[in-house]
UniProtKB/TrEMBL annotation:
<feature type="domain" description="Acyl-CoA dehydrogenase/oxidase N-terminal">
    <location>
        <begin position="10"/>
        <end position="120"/>
    </location>
</feature>
<dbReference type="InterPro" id="IPR009075">
    <property type="entry name" value="AcylCo_DH/oxidase_C"/>
</dbReference>
<protein>
    <submittedName>
        <fullName>Acyl-CoA dehydrogenase family protein</fullName>
    </submittedName>
</protein>
<dbReference type="InterPro" id="IPR037069">
    <property type="entry name" value="AcylCoA_DH/ox_N_sf"/>
</dbReference>
<dbReference type="InterPro" id="IPR046373">
    <property type="entry name" value="Acyl-CoA_Oxase/DH_mid-dom_sf"/>
</dbReference>
<dbReference type="Pfam" id="PF02770">
    <property type="entry name" value="Acyl-CoA_dh_M"/>
</dbReference>
<dbReference type="Pfam" id="PF00441">
    <property type="entry name" value="Acyl-CoA_dh_1"/>
</dbReference>
<dbReference type="InterPro" id="IPR036250">
    <property type="entry name" value="AcylCo_DH-like_C"/>
</dbReference>
<keyword id="KW-0285">Flavoprotein</keyword>
<dbReference type="InterPro" id="IPR052161">
    <property type="entry name" value="Mycobact_Acyl-CoA_DH"/>
</dbReference>
<keyword id="KW-0560">Oxidoreductase</keyword>
<feature type="domain" description="Acyl-CoA dehydrogenase/oxidase C-terminal">
    <location>
        <begin position="231"/>
        <end position="393"/>
    </location>
</feature>
<comment type="similarity">
    <text>Belongs to the acyl-CoA dehydrogenase family.</text>
</comment>
<dbReference type="InterPro" id="IPR006091">
    <property type="entry name" value="Acyl-CoA_Oxase/DH_mid-dom"/>
</dbReference>
<feature type="domain" description="Acyl-CoA oxidase/dehydrogenase middle">
    <location>
        <begin position="125"/>
        <end position="219"/>
    </location>
</feature>
<dbReference type="InterPro" id="IPR009100">
    <property type="entry name" value="AcylCoA_DH/oxidase_NM_dom_sf"/>
</dbReference>
<dbReference type="InterPro" id="IPR013786">
    <property type="entry name" value="AcylCoA_DH/ox_N"/>
</dbReference>
């Protein structure tokens, strides 16, 4: 019996478990649990399986195609997906631009874009950051100048996640340079296939192509693709960031990774004994497990504020959640030792034949460790989150 949930919630959990057991393809599950890289097709396949079931957009109101779940049911769903090892549903369409379109978009934008987001007809990416405008986002310089029924966009975005797959990008652009910087920003939906859009890869520490630079050279964007009012984009941008940070604690995923870490440490030997029985290593794992249990309790307390969007508490969850995720990758690397790199890098793609020396459990872990350095930077860096906690929660 799980005392955290009502019997109705437990029945819902069983329903989700049964669905995942029967619908999550084994090849996708194996890639996720094995820390391998997922292709665009992998993400789209899982998105469409959930869409078919009506479960791809847990946070959407029922009128737009959401399942009408309570916050606790949404939490249970996320936990169960993490536990089962599903691919992530990319947040850029479902969790980021869609709420902004619902709240501030025109009727035409709602009717056109929302069904395409649900069905994954369009892959979206996020065009906020620029060189020189990350933490200080309002300093962005990409311009959009009105020319008849179009805006002409020029400038550069950076760190754009999976832009190489994208059909659409939501961009913050400068439409007035003469006013206070927050007051001259607009929110524009841009077709990534339009003439003048160029995507250049940035290869990360783990040698993966996950982020990009996106250049706009006289790109013509219909005025109909402006969301809300011109120069009010900063308000919409902040609304979106509130949505971005809510699921970021990723407790379910960390619980799954903790389980993986223990399996690995039980298998690895140190001084003739399983590593997990080494007192120093066992103490590190225990510390982490306690931190994770405390975070889970905090998440449930935040959820208990029914109906209230998380405020500065979201910053707390982000900092603790990402600290835990990074520590997990460090301990996995420590446990795997020299076997944490694949002999054949194509092994990480999960497709190519791999060397007999590749250790299925250990070989992806160095790449995984390097990749997870990102978590304390994106979604608003942890230093910025600590500033928010200091000012808004501690009142200092
Ligand atoms: C893997 C990855 C994916 C990303 N995906 C996207 C995406 O899809 N779309 C998008 O728009 N952006 C994306 N980003 C960008 C991300 O939002 C920015 O990297 C982040 O906001 C930090 O900005 P910056 O990199 O310009 O660093 P800077 O703002 O230059 O900060 C540099 C350092 O200084 C610290 N710092 C800055 N200001 C302060 C302050 N006031 N107080 C204390 N410390 C401070 C920061 O914490 C950081 O450690 C992604 C980033 C990464 C790493």
């Amino acid at each position: 019996m799980d005392l955290r949930y009502s019997s109705a919630d437990l029945a819902f959990r069983d329903q989700v478990r049964a669905f995942l057991d029967s619908h999550l393809p084994q090849d996708l599950r194996a890639k996720v649990l094995g820390h391998l890289r997922l292709s665009k097709d992998d993400f789209v396949r899982w998105h469409r399986i959930l869409a078919q079931q009506g479960w791809v957009a847990p946070g959407w109101p029922a009128e737009f195609g959401g399942p009408g779940w309570t916050p606790v049911q949404r939490h249970i769903f996320e936990e169960e997906c993490a536990r089962a090892g599903t691919p992530r549903v990319m947040p850029f369409g479902i969790d980021m631009v869609a709420p902004v379109i619902m709240a501030f978009g025109s009727q035409e934008q709602k009717e056109y874009f929302l069904p395409r987001i649900l069905s994954c007809e369009d892959w979206w990416c996020q065009g906020y950051s620029e060189p020189g405008a990350g933490s200080d986002l309002a300093s962005l310089k990409t311009t959009a100048v009105r020319d008849g029924d179009h805006y002409v966009v020029n400038g550069q975005k950076t760190w754009t996640t999976l832009a190489q797959h994208a059909d659409m990008i939501f961009c913050l652009v400068r439409t007035d340079s003469a006013v206070r910087k927050q007051e001259g920003i607009s929110f524009l939906l841009v077709d990534m296939h339009a003439p003048g859009v160029t995507v250049r890869p940035i290869i990360m520490l783990d040698e993966d192509h996950e982020v990009n630079e996106v250049f706009f050279d006289n790109v013509r964007v219909p005025v109909a693709n402006l969301v809300g009012q011109e120069n009010r984009g900063w308000t919409y941008a902040k609304y979106l960031l509130g949505h971005e940070r809510t699921g970021i604690a990723a407790v379910g995923r960390s619980k799954r990774e903790l389980h993986f870490l223990k399996r690995l440490a039980r298998r690895e030997q140190r001084n003739g004994r399983p590593l997990l029985e080494d007192p120093l290593f066992a103490a590190k794992v225990a510390d982490l497990e306690i931190e994770l249990m405390a975070l889970e309790t905090t998440v449930l307390r935040v959820l208990a504020q029914a109906g209230k969007a998380p405020g500065p508490e979201a910053s707390l969850l982000k900092v603790r959640g990402t600290d835990i995720q990074q520590t997990l990758t460090e301990l996995m690397l420590e446990a795997a030792g020299p076997m944490a790199l694949p002999f054949d890098p194509a092994f990480l793609e999960g497709e190519a034949e791999h060397s007999v020396a590749d250790d299925d459990m250990a070989a992806p872990l160095a790449a995984h460790y390097f990749n997870y350095r990102k978590t304390s930077i994106y979604g608003g860096s942890n230093e910025i989150q600590r500033n928010i906690i200091t000012q808004m929660i501690l009142g200092l």
